[in-house]
Amino acid sequence: KAGVTQTPRYLIKTRGQQVTLSCSPISGHRSVSWYQQTPGQGLQFLFEYFSETQRNKGNFPGRFSGRQFSNSRSEMNVSTLELGDSALYLCASSKGPPWEQYFGPGTRLTVT
Amino acid sequence: QKEVEQNSGPLSVPEGAIASLNCTYSDRGSQSFFWYRQYSGKSPELIMSIYSNGDKEDGRFTAQLNKASQYVSLLIRDSQPSDSATYLCAVRGNTPLVFGKGTRLSVIA
After folding, report:
1. Given A42, A48, A100, which is nearest B49 (Cβ)?
2. Full pLDDT tens readout for chain B, 109 residues
3. Which residue in A83, B9, B10, B43 has its CB near the most CB atoms, within 10 A?
């Protein structure tokens, strides 16, 4: 069974630009969660979607948004990029309760 | 604020020894508990899940849960150099998965 895929794997953007990251979950998984990982803060929760509905949202500014499509694929958008947005963005998929999550390889975003 | 605490390490153990990794959590309503392994430059990999008090064994790994003490642990028997990684504890109740900052394990050959 194919794992979680994320595109692109690496991205370099400049301050003020926007970016869209994509995630395809494991086949049959209806939930997708997004995380930001930085060396200082560890894994920080961004969003959780289940069957196209946002179930939970983390403490990130409104510049961070996401959505999930009917085929369970998900996208995350960050507008007006800041230097502090440089991080590894991870997507994880789950069937649902009890919420075992499986991570994709991540997208490494660098903002210059 | 739901919190998950782990000793950051590094925890150094000799090859063949038992590595013991510990985690405490603040939300008494937590129901699902997970251990992830993350190699440097890679994404987290789920290695154990546990939902009820007691021990759960899978190969060289044993997860232990004590809900009364709000404590989860992971034991790695016969530790190998390939086990050297950061181990993340994650906890879920009625809120999204909360991760600890991880314990770095180093297995010395």
Report:
1. A100
2. 679 999 988 999 999 999 999 999 999 999 999 999 999 999 999 999 999 999 999 999 999 999 999 999 999 999 999 999 999 999 998 889 999 999 999 999 9
3. B43
Which of B 19-58 lie inside 8 A of A, CB atoms?
31-32, 34, 36, 42-46, 49, 51
Sequence-ordered strand ranges (E) for B18-102? 19-25, 32-38, 45-50, 54-58, 61-66, 71-76, 85-92, 98-99
Cα–Cα distance between B85 and B63 in angstroms, integer? 17
Q: Under DSSP, is residue B58 helix (H, G, I), strand (E, B) or coil?
A: strand
Task: Determine how many CB atoms are found less than 10 A away from the CB of residue A36.
Answer: 22
Tens digits of residue pLDDT in A52-103: 999 999 999 999 999 999 999 999 999 999 999 999 999 999 998 888 999 9
